[in-house]
Amino acid sequence: MTHQVYIGLGSNLQNPQQQLQHAIDRIREIPATSVILVSPFYGSTAVGPGQQPDYVNAAALLATQLQAHPLLDQLQAIEQQQGRKRGPQQWVPRTLDLDILLFNNEQITSERLQIPHPHMTERNFVLQPLHDLNPDLALPDGRSVQDLLSKLDRQGLWAL
Questions:
Q1: Residue 154: its pLDDT value, please?
Q2: Rounded to whole angstroms, how far apart are CA atoms 81 and 64?
Q3: 26 is catalytic
Q4: Which terminal residue of the chain, N or C, has fewer Cβ atoms less than 10 Å from its own Cβ?
Q5: How far is the C-alpha of 94 from the C-alpha of 86, rounded, in Å?
């Protein structure tokens, strides 16, 4: 069975645009997975406490035969290969952040994975690229990405 998956990409270290492009190239190498569409890249102000560089964000639509957790393993391996350091702190600069935002129309909650991504509805830098990929996209609970995006402030987000 082929699954339709939307992922979010972000980076704010070591040439972020190049980090995202390299990640997309690596995602194309994941077994039984195809990259269908990639959104434009956006610049965004970092979220969270403290000062850190601006981010570059995008989204991609994948078709995969992998289940959600094996796909997560593949994405985290790409993050690690591109220098991602995981630790207890949440709001830190990173070379690469790859998040599964939506997996088919499923809701998944496990220790390692929550789909839909728990904060995606609050983040213009996630919703705008998703809207670019599919203006009619809706979350499993029926809320449309377009409606959620229309309720957010667009400050701190710019096209690259």
A1: 83
A2: 21
A3: no
A4: N
A5: 9
Active-site residue, 84 included = yes
Q: What is the DSSP letter of 118?
A: T
Nearest C-alpha neighbor of 67 from the set 116, 24, 25, 33? 33
What is the DSSP secondary-structure string of 9-72?
EEE-SSSHHHHHHHHHHHHTTSTTEEEEEEPPPEEEPPPSSS--PPEEEEEEEEEESS-HHHHH
Contact 40, 160 (CB under 8 A): yes
| Options 28, 86, 99, 141, the catalytic residue | 99
154 in active site:
no
For strand 157-159 and strand 42-44, is the pairing parallel, antiparallel, or unpaired? Answer: antiparallel
Farthest-apart Cα atoms in the chain, separation: 44
End-to-end CA distance of the chain: 36
CB contact at 8 A, 67 and 108: no
Q: Which amino acid is located at 62 in the chain?
A: L
For the entire predicted model, the pTM comes to 0.95
Residue 2 CA to residue 104 CA, distance in Å, equals 9
